[in-house]
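Q: My labmate handed me this sequence with no annotations at all. I'd like to see what the chain might look like in three dimensions before we decide whether it's worth expressing. Could you predict it?
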Amino acid sequence: MSSYDPAKTAILLIGYQRDWFDSDGVFNSVIEESSRLGGTVKNTVALLNAAADTEMTVISAPIAFSEFYNELENPIGILKMIKDAEAFKLGTPGAETIDAIAKFGDWVVEVPGRIGFNAFSNTDLAKVLSEKGIETVVVCGAVTSLCVNATGMKASEDYKVVVLSDCVSGRTQVEQDLFCNELFPYFAEVMDHSSFIQKVSVQV
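A: Here is what I predict for the chain of 204 residues:
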């Protein structure tokens, strides 16, 4: 396992929004157990605190929809559930970044436009990564089997990918373990946030 050059590394935050992570969020129950057991938010904050002393780039890719969800044509699965529940709607509290991440302010580069699982689709994420000379993408957030998986797989086409196992939240612990232990290693290096910080520190 190699160390990482902070100047060429980006931490990608997927879905750190109130409808996922706040106790009264519309879809909090979907990831609540995994987030609590794994300490997703606490570990992500520790990661960002460590990254603040480096040249790492931090990017947030929230999901958000217009008032009538016109972006979604004949949605199925969880996207249909999101539309039916009117979750992640622009201008509502549920679409907002959670306080634990929002406190980092403009240091976190927000890339808007995501309306599906893959954070590269319908956004300028690839352009931002290219402009900053990024070679390694570190994926964190929710949901492990959906947005984290889809974004990580797409990123692996052009970048080295790291998934931080204690900074992602799944729907169940069984799902979490399956993806982190069996599936992610096919296209990414998987480790916890402390191990990653140590590998970056080698270069600092």
